[in-house]
Amino acid sequence: MIKIPAAIEERLYRLGIFARILVAVGAFARNRHVSLRGLVMQIYFTFFQALGITTMLALGLGAAVGLIGFPFLQMLGQQGFIYSILIIIVTRELGPLLIAFIIIARSATAIATEVAGMVISHEVEAYVSVGVDPIEHLAVPRFLGVTISLILLNIFFSLFGLAGSYLIVQLFHSLPADYYFGNLIRQLTVADIAAVVIKSIIFGMIISTVAITEGLGVERASTEVPVAGLKAVTKSFGACIAVSIMIAALFYTLLA
C-alpha cells in the first residue's frame, strides 16, 4: 500500500472539511433557526468588536499614504496620481490583507481554541450521539460569520482609510470634499471592487476553514488546545499571503 505523505494527507483532510462545510451551508440555510444565534454571535465578535482597531488602522494607513504620497507627487507636478495610489494601497491591496491579519489574530485563534476545547470535553461527540451534525451546527455559522464580517470590514476599512487621507491632504492643499471623493470614485473601477470582494470571500473561507480543521484535529490532551490556536494563526497567515500574491498577479496579468 502506498503511504500518503503527512503534508498531502493534511491538505486532503482540510479540503474534505471545506467540502463538507460547503454542502452543510445549504442545510444551514434551510434550518437556520438551529444555529442562527451562533452566526449572529460570530458576526458580532468578528465584525463589531473589531471596528475599533479597524478604524485606527484605516485612518492611519490613509493618513500615511496622504502624508508621504501627496507632497512627493506635488513636487513632481503629478498630484493627480494620489487617487490611483490610494485605491491601489487602501482599497485593493494592503487593506484586505490587513483586515485578514486582524481577523486571524482575533477570530482564528478564538475559533480554533473553542472548537478544540469542545473536542477535548467530548461536546462534539455529544452532538453526534444525539444526531446533530457538528459541521452544520458548529462549523457553518463560524464559516459564514467570518466571511460576511471580512466583506463588511473591508468596506468599512476603505471608507475610513480614504477619509483619513482626505484629512491629511487638507494640510497641504485645500480641496473640496466633493472634488476629492469625486476623483476617487472616478478612479475606482469594477475590477477594483471585484478584487476586494474576491479577496474578502477567499480570505474568510481560508481563515474559518483552517481554524475549524485545527480545532477538530486535536486528540485528547488539553495541552493541544493552545497549539491548535497557534497552528491556525500561522497557517492562515501563510495561506492568505500566498492567495493575495496570486490574486494580485492574476489581476495585473489580465489588465496588461
Please describe what this structure looks like:
The protein is mostly helical and 256 residues long. It has one domain (34-255). The chain is 85% helix and 0% strand. It has nine helices and no strands. It has helices at 6-30, 36-46, 51-76, 82-120, 123-129, 134-172, 177-187, 190-216, 224-255. The longest helix is centred in the middle third of the chain and has 39 residues, at 82-120. The model has no long low-confidence stretch (mean pLDDT 85).
Short structural summary:
With 256 residues, the chain is mostly helical. It has one domain.
Low-confidence stretches: none
Average residue pLDDT: 85
Distance between the termini: 48 Å
Multimeric state of these chains?
single chain
Percent helix among the residues? over 70%
- Radius of gyration in whole Å, from Cα? 21 Å
Strand content: under 5%
The total domain count is: 1
Largest sheet: none
Judging from the principal axes of the Cα atoms, what is the shape?
elongated
- Helix and strand sequence: HHHHHHHHH
Which class best fits the helix and strand makeup? mainly alpha
Tally of contiguous helical segments = 9
> How many β-strand runs?
0
Distinctive features:
256 residues, 9 helices, mainly alpha
List the helices and strands and how they pair.
Elements: H1 6-30, H2 36-46, H3 51-76, H4 82-120, H5 123-129, H6 134-172, H7 177-187, H8 190-216, H9 224-255
